[in-house]
Amino acid sequence: MQYDVIVIGSGPGGYVAAIRSAQLGLKTACIEKYATYGGTCLNVGCIPSKALLDSSEHYYNASHAFKTHGINLDNLSLDMAQMMKRKTEVVAKNTAGISFLFKKNKIDGYQGIGSFKDKNTISIKKPDGTTEEISGKNIIVATGSKPSGLPFIKIDKKRIITSTEALTLQEVPKHLVLIGGGVIGLELGSVYARLGAKVSVIEFMDSIIPTMDRGLGKELQKVLQKQGMEFYLGHKVTGATSNGKEVTVTFDAPNGDKKELTGDYCLVAVGRVAYTDGLGLDKIGLSVEERGRKITVNDHLETSVKGVYAIGDVVKGAMLAHKAEDEGTFVAEVIAGQKPHINYNLIPGVVYTWPEVAAVGQTEEQLKAANIKYKTGSFPFRASGRAVASGDLDGFVKVLADAATDEILGVHIIGPRAADMIAEAVVAMEFRASAEDISRMSHAHPTYTEAFREACLAATDNRPIHI
Fold first, then answer.
1. Are 2-146+273-344 and 160-270 equal in CATH topology?
2. What is the pLDDT of residue 220?
3. Is the predicted pLDDT of residue 461 greater than 90, yes or no?
4. Which residues have a catalytic role annotated?
5. Per the count of CB atoms within 10 A, which of 216, 406, 432, 465 is most buried?
6. What is the DSSP letter of 288?
7. If you average pLDDT over residues 313-323, what whole number do you get?
8. Superfamily for 2-146+273-344?
9. Where are the domains of the chain?
10. Burial (CB count within 10 angstroms: exposed 0-12, middle 13-18, buried 19+), residue 267
């Protein structure tokens, strides 16, 4: 078969690239090695983790907050099997949706492992062992990423696990030792903490979510500690061993003291690495970076081999589903002869704990390092009428604006529905709005987004109304 575009991988970047290519009139194929479309995000990442986060939040509220609302429950219990069953059903609905969209857009789907025979020919090794070849004028590599580990720790997938196995546990851990205080680890750690597990977080850096604004990490740690999680920051893990039903994790304190924790599960969540194994990149003269296994691309996301593109987790930048989606659309439009654009500075980052954490643009640390003069305005959710009504008092909105022009340079939120609220900040910054612009726009009352307006009022000339 001859195609205009062949996409290898059907995660958020891959399936969006395929759909947009088809919309533009390009004959398109998409290759997926698993039985269902959607890649890591839909199958063992974004979607199942959010299903468990929502379920565990309902349980936590039922056991901790309902009484304050006048709702009394007797004999509250947890049905772990049903919770996991619902998660599986959520995943199935989403992956089935991708199949529907492929049929709607007349995209040919192939199941198997795709690899380069040459720059225009892809060999597909099918589950039954047979091989098929298809040809394309343009190839898009969208194979995503996989959990990375530590070289001195053996992942047995039973007691020493990755995020993939953490999504399928059939019991609530008594004590979950979490290696890594980043987004993935904290989300999954908070799931099991809400369900009653003791969760201990060991993080090498001196702050959790260390790539985000430090104020967000400090506030999130305070909230998660109230939920029962404990933290060992600035500690270096040296080993983890399993002896049946227990795992012992050893680590060094900042002062050099030797420590250890014993739990029934250890979740290793130290990041992800690009999945480029088996692609046969060497056959077309491509290699990957030694660290991170990333594929080098130009500003059009094209590799050094003409007609071969790469997007998402296999190229530089944040490993985020929505970043991959934007790049999928971008490449399809480049191939079709259009001139699309992505502003990488305005791709938001989100942590789906509760409260949620969301940010876009520059952090205070980045602005200081770049010697950019800025002003800041913040507003706490405990001063928000909507937050008081819902009982979500933790967190704040912080706005960073240029000291001279008042242009918004960064927005950092920890609080209720921060993941949705950040979209207003993205729109504002895409159109280069000033803090005063937002402060003069009407916001419905009572809503959480009023906190963004108040933070902008604070940044404009220090005149928030409600504090």
1. yes
2. 98
3. no
4. 445
5. 216
6. B
7. 97
8. FAD/NAD(P)-binding domain (3.50.50.60)
9. 2-146+273-344, 160-270, 355-461
10. buried
Hunting for tokens 């399936």 — which residue is that? Answer: 15
Helix axes 183-194, 214-226, angle to 10 degrees: 20
* Token code pair at residue 262: 């014993």
Question: How many residues does the structure list for the chain?
Answer: 467
Pairing of strands 145-147, 272-274: antiparallel
Alpha carbons 190 and 354: distance in angstroms, whole number: 8
Q: How many CB atoms lie within 10 A of CB 442?
A: 6
User: Residues with Cβ < 8 Å from 145, sequence gap 6 or more?
Assistant: 40, 272, 273, 274, 275, 313, 314, 319
Confidence of residue 1 (pLDDT cuts 50, 70, 90): confident
The first and second tokens of residue 44, run together, are 């063992």
CATH code for the structural domain at 160-270: 3.50.50.60
Element (H, E) at 261: strand 258-263
H/E element, 72: none
Structural tokens at position 419: 């993941």
Interstrand relation of 121-125 and 131-141 (parallel, antiparallel or unpaired) = antiparallel
* 376 phi and psi angles, rounded to 5 deg: -130, 145
In degrees and rounded to multiples of 5, residue 22 shows phi and psi of -65, -40
Strands 265-268 and 160-161: parallel
* Contact call for residues 351 and 46 (beta carbons, < 8 A): no
Torsion angle (degrees, nearest 10) of CA 366, 368, 373, 375: 80
Q: What are the Cα distances from residue 6, in Å, to 39, 363, 456?
A: 16, 38, 46
Strand partners, 135: 2, 121
- pLDDT-based confidence at residue 291 (cuts at 50, 70, 90): confident
Q: In this predicted model, what pLDDT tens digit does every residue of 178-206 receive, in sequence order?
A: 999 999 999 999 999 999 999 999 999 99
DSSP secondary structure string for all residues of 33-61? SSSSSSHHHHHHSHHHHHHHHHHHHHHHH
Checking if the pLDDT of 290 tops 90, the result is no
